[in-house]
Amino acid sequence: MKKVNNIRQYYLIETMGCQMNERDSETVAGMLEELGYERAPAQAAQGCGGKAQALSAARLAADVIVVNTCSVRENADNKFFGTLGQIKKAKEADPCKIVAVCGCMMQQPHIVSDIQRRFPWVDIVFGTMNIEAFPSMLAGALNARKGRVADQVSPPWHSALVDIRTDAGEIAEGLPSRRARPFSAFVNITYGCNNFCTYCIVPLARGRERSRRPEAILCEVEALAADGVREITLLGQNVNSYRSPDSGGTGFPSLIRMLDAVPGIERIRFMTSHPKDLSDGLIDCYRTARRLCPSIHLPIQSGSADVLRRMNRGYSKEYYIALTEKLRAALPEIVITTDFIVGFPGETDADFEETMDVIERVRFDAAFTFLYSPREGTPAAEYEGRVPAVVAHARFDRMVSRLNAIAAEKNRAMLGRIYDVLIEGPSKTDESMLTGRTPGGKLVNIRPPARGSHELAGAIEPVRLVESGTFSFIGEFA
Ligand code: SAH
Ligand code: SF4
Ligand code: F3S
Q: Which fold has domain 418-477?
């Protein structure tokens, strides 16, 4: 499909989920660009109304809008339905606009029927296991639209094309991709998850775990390096269980060693790492793999043995603490971050104190804290002992304030030191500054840019940390 009469065709992708979701959006963007679409201009309204106005301008300008959804917590679902309500206005202004919805929410049949009932003007619905179907679905929707215009059928037109798979089949390789940043890239290594933590929708939304072949990953990373990428983030729900599909094949530590040797790649990150599968081989990589960044996101969820057992996490607080000690013995400056769920069904005050204890003992650099959200179809949604909202909120606040205080203390201890910072571009909060990350992943706003900001995006520069906060630093070029 080519541009019609050289008229520019625009697309907008709204991504609501995690890095895996973002990576899928990059694939959808790559497909649309191969078809001749360009990213919708969003700058028009910036400055006079901020982000929200820029987004509605982009929605109006776009010929194709894709919403890539997340289902991990209930507020993600609500946000999606709110977004569709807003997109409706853009669709009413231009009924020829194609609206597609995809991602984790679409793997739940009740959501798809909800969309068909409440938002019948949505044109395309596809899932997480058949992204490659999108271009032909788009062609189908465009043809249907052409037919209706030719037959002088007036809008609204109601007939979504729906294609959801529940059996993932072979991994589709070689799909196009449009990266968000030229120097940094996400690389999928596994899809899906076999862990079935009792609270989690992901195994239902993404299917069983599949690992990509190491040759396919290496080939992608080499191509990325040749294209100017310096930093890769390997993606999987549990990267530690990566295993080449060939019998007796490569595991995660060997994969890291293989990618460590790719010329041009300066930083290797990964997420997420499940504590029960973190091997000594991976810990050893922190000593030996030169490009592996000194950071690990290692979700613990809770400190209570009983809660962890009912979550089906497969480790204890002591086991987790021992892992962090081993990691710090291998690499003392390693940045350790985590996730917590507060208010899991049946969580008692004593359980919560176990979580507070682990916070004191591990001293995390940063943590994401989530209120437990029941997800339909998961075992925990049926568990008894719902924690009252006021209790859960009080625990949440106490925890966040302690986590933040520790994070601020840890950051203060880094003041005065010089780190190699990978510059990402102008700071989102203050355009006069540049923003970048230390090898451990800490955010630094750099003032004043000694040189032009645009040329520096993608450069790795020594920066001295001169002010510290809870979530970021101010730095100066050293
Ligand atoms: N695969 C990753 C996690 C992906 S989901 C891992 O196992 O580490 C990201 C985070 O969302 C989880 O670590 C958990 O803290 C949180 N989460 C998942 N399901 C949730 C739920 N039902 N309610 C609240 N938080 C949840
Ligand atoms: Fe969800 Fe657990 Fe799998 Fe992570 S490991 S995606 S929390 S089931
Ligand atoms: Fe990610 Fe949300 Fe799906 S966290 S895997 S986009 S449910």
A: OB fold (Dihydrolipoamide Acetyltransferase, E2P) (2.40.50)
Residue range(s) occupied by CATH 3.40.50.12160 in the chain? 10-163
Given a cut of 70, whether residue 258 has pLDDT beyond it is: yes
Q: Which residues in the chain are classed under CATH 2.40.50?
A: 418-477
Task: Please give the CATH number for the structural domain made up of 294-413.
Answer: 3.30.750.200
Instruction: Report the alpha-carbon distance of residue 319 to residue 321 in Å, rounded.
Output: 6
Distance CA 128, CA 207 (A): 9
Answer whether 55's CB lies under 8 Å from 42's CB: yes
pLDDT tens string 71-90: 999 998 899 999 999 999 99
Residues with beta carbon inside 6 Å of ligand 1? 72-73, 199-200, 202, 237-238, 272, 274, 299, 301, 339, 341, 370, 372-373, 375
Distance 321 CA to ligand 1 centre (A): 20
Structure tokens at 212: 């990509």
CATH entry 3.40.50.12160 includes domain 10-163: yes
The dihedrals phi and psi of 372, each to the nearest 5 degrees, come to: -55, 135
Report pTM: 0.95
Mean pLDDT of 301-312: 98
* 47 pLDDT above the threshold of 80: no
**Percent share of the chain, pLDDT over 90:** 85
User: According to the model, what pLDDT value does residue 432 have?
Assistant: 83
Which residue has a Cα nearest atom 1 of ligand 1?
Answer: 237
**Residue 48: pLDDT above 60?**
no
pLDDT at 388: 98
Is the pLDDT reported for residue 411 higher than 60?
yes
Ligand nearest to the CA of 378: 1
Q: Where in the chain is the domain with CATH 3.30.750.200?
A: 294-413
Q: What is the pLDDT of residue 248?
A: 72
